[in-house]
Amino acid sequence: MPPKQMTGKGRAVAEPSFASSTVQAFTSAENRSVVTAIGLFAIGVTFLHSSWAEMLLPA
């Protein structure tokens, strides 16, 4: 099993927490297109599931 902490120059450096590594993954430039696509898909599904979707029906 790997150690819980990495050592560097005489002091222990803790691994980043799950929350901070997740936020860093979402905000990195290389994942921007994937995060944008998922966000727009979620907005579209939310709109089509709401009562505002009735505006798309022909009169």
UniProtKB/TrEMBL annotation:
<keyword id="KW-1133">Transmembrane helix</keyword>
<dbReference type="Pfam" id="PF17112">
    <property type="entry name" value="Tom6"/>
</dbReference>
<feature type="transmembrane region" description="Helical">
    <location>
        <begin position="34"/>
        <end position="53"/>
    </location>
</feature>
<protein>
    <recommendedName>
        <fullName>TOM core complex subunit Tom6</fullName>
    </recommendedName>
</protein>
<dbReference type="GO" id="GO:0005742">
    <property type="term" value="C:mitochondrial outer membrane translocase complex"/>
</dbReference>
<keyword id="KW-0812">Transmembrane</keyword>
<keyword id="KW-0472">Membrane</keyword>
<dbReference type="InterPro" id="IPR020266">
    <property type="entry name" value="Tom6"/>
</dbReference>
<dbReference type="GO" id="GO:0030150">
    <property type="term" value="P:protein import into mitochondrial matrix"/>
</dbReference>
